[in-house]
Amino acid sequence: MASPNVLTPQAEDFPKWYQDVVAKAEMADNGPVRGTMVIRPYGYAIWERMVAEVDQRIKKTGAQNAYFPLFIPQSYLAREAEHIEGFSPELAVVTIAGGEELAEPIVVRPTSETVIGEYMAKWVQSHRDLPLLLNQWANVVRWELRPRLFLRSSEFLWQEGHTAHASAEDASSYALRIHTEVYNDFLTSILAVPTLLGIKPPSERFAGATNTMTCEGMMRDGKALQMATSHELGQNFAKAFDIVFQNDAGESAHCFTTSWGASTRMVGGLIMAHGDDNGLVVPPRLAPIQVVILPVREGDEAVDAACAQLAATLEANEVRVTLDKGRGSFGRRTTDWEIKGVPLRLEVGPRDLAEGLVTMVRRDTNEKISVALDAVAGAISHALGAMQADMLAAATARRDDRITTVSTVAEAIEASQNGFARLSWSLVTPEIEKQLKGEALTVRCLQRADGSIPLSDTEDGLTCIIAKSY
RNA sequence: CGGGAAGUGGCGCAGCUUGGUAGCGCACCUGGUUUGGGACCAGGGGGCCGCGGGUUCGAAUCCCGCCUUCCCGACCA
User: Fold this and answer.
1) In the complex, which nucleotide's C1' lies nearest to the CA atom of residue A351?
2) CB contact set of A17 (below 8 Å; sequence gap of 6+)
3) Where in chain A do CATH 3.30.110 domains reside?
4) CATH 3.30.110 is held by the domain A402-467
5) Mean pLDDT, chain A, whole residue set
6) How far is the CA of A143 from the C1' of B76 (A)?
């Protein structure tokens, strides 16, 4: 256990705890311009792991990576009325470049539906060109009034997928496939964050979408965080950008498009879904460092040799392992790795070594197990697997404890002070949504009674999740 | 963008009321003793006090403007 005063306890001040973890785990710093973020090597290593896992899943669905420009003509955004209306307040616009006032202002992309739409129109001629499945990893800029590291920064990193299809059904099923096979699978099986899948109410839809799906996660303070999102755009952008194809009967038709994204916000979600008073807890399958080998004292030849041997063995078993430098007190080094959330520590000291043992400690439970030197590889592999499963189970239990099914709006407001309220969607009128807003609450998503994703907000028998959110 | 709080070595803070040129803890460097849950002793280094203006013989301290951060709201991945 970390000594007191390393981090602000969660129960005392959750936002302060979050900042402490971001700083002390060396995840990120504020940038010099308000809302900007410097991602430090450890934070970036975690992001890179997310990128690798998500990218691999995206490619499995058939999408290909490409890259589109940062700068977008302002007129492009204006072509889709809802889109420009939704994004205008958040845009950073370049009006001077090369020392001259520009004839047409250039927008720094807040998202790339518009530029990509322009090129889709160029590239799509026939139904044989469809579906067109594109993805890009990029930075985007949305000027934020209230920034928070990872959760809401004015510039952030993400992946944005953009696809064009011949039919509404094809677009819809692809967006759903991304939602479940890419996002939800990544979130649950790698990030160990259980999700509630649903659609956004019309008031919360992406600007220009006909349907927005969301993966809502619950943080340890009971607030909701949208971890990823997937949109059906209907023919809105196809009409604005003339994305037209000839079908097999030789007739012209507008495509149906989708877009979907997941961002560095997931790093914030990781911190807040799993972190505890001792710091970050990174699930093993995500962790850039899965095991740290920690010599109890420096300069002990037997210990150093055993550490080197263990590192080699684990590397050969494809475990992502780091050898602690052994400088400074044992307690200090232990605490530092604990704050970084490394799943397993292997403590190697002369006492254990004399008996042919090392001590393995799990970050999530602090459970200490003595392991024989020649059994380390197997024990590590087993512990990594167990910890991954236990973290998802624990997060799921915490979440379910905090979801209350209620039957009135007043009860929903009460129940959502410390968690999620589940209420019949039929009780939520636009006036009620306003009332909720006054209580700092929003409808996070709509679900069918069985928790599955509805096709539309007008289906009968839907429930909604009401919560505070980040 | 509105309402609150705050910016002083890397981090956390004191000093400001009653102007006189900066201090503490942690971190850092050197040496030694240590090392099984944030070690100890000794000796060191580092700050034009967020930025810009003003008042004054003199400003961390008083006045004005701006920037940044945090909390609460409206907007959002």
Assistant:
1) B36
2) A7, A8, A9, A10, A275, A277
3) 402-467
4) yes
5) 93
6) 9
Distance CA A158, CA A137 (A): 6
Q: In which residue ranges of chain A is CATH 3.30.930.10 found?
A: 14-274
- Distance between CA atoms of residues A127 and A390, nearest Å: 47
Residue among A80, A9, A21 at smallest CA distance from A235: A80
Angle at A279 between CA A418 and CA A344, to 5 degrees: 120
**Cα–Cα dist A253/A239, whole Å:** 10
Distance A15 CA to B70 C1' (A): 9
Q: Note the CA–C1' distance, A23 to B21, in angstroms.
A: 34
Separation between the CA of A425 and the C1’ of B8 (whole angstroms): 54
| The pairing of beta strand A37-39 with beta strand A28-30 | antiparallel
State which residue has its Cα closest to the C1' atom of B34. Answer: A329
Architecture of the domain delimited by A14-274: 2-Layer Sandwich (3.30)
| Chain B bases near protein CB atoms (7 A cut-off) | 1-2, 28, 34-39, 67-77
Q: Which residues have C-beta within 8 Å of that of residue A40, sequence separation ≥ 6? A: A26, A27, A28, A29
The second-level CATH assignment, the architecture, of A291-383 is 3-Layer(aba) Sandwich (3.40)
Nucleotide nearest to A357 (CA to C1'): B36
Give residue A2's pLDDT.
40
Name the packing angle between helices A14-24 and A265-274 (round to 10°): 110
Who contacts A117 (Cβ-Cβ below 8 Å, separation ≥6)?
A76, A162, A237, A238, A240, A241, A243, A257
pLDDT tier, A1 (very low <50, low <70, confident <90, very high otherwise): very low
Round to a whole number and report the distance in Å from the CA of A343 to the C1' of B47: 40
Residue nearest B1, CA–C1′ metric = A145
Domain(s) labelled CATH 3.40.50.800 in chain A stretch across: 291-383
What's the Å distance between residue A16 CA and nucleotide B55 C1'? 39
Mean pLDDT, residues A45-71 taken together? 97
Nucleotide showing the shortest C1' distance to residue A468 CA: B73
- The 10s digit of each residue's pLDDT in A147-163 is 889 998 889 999 999 99
- The DSSP line for A227-260 is EEEEEE-TTHHHHHHT-EEE-TTS-EEE-EEEEE
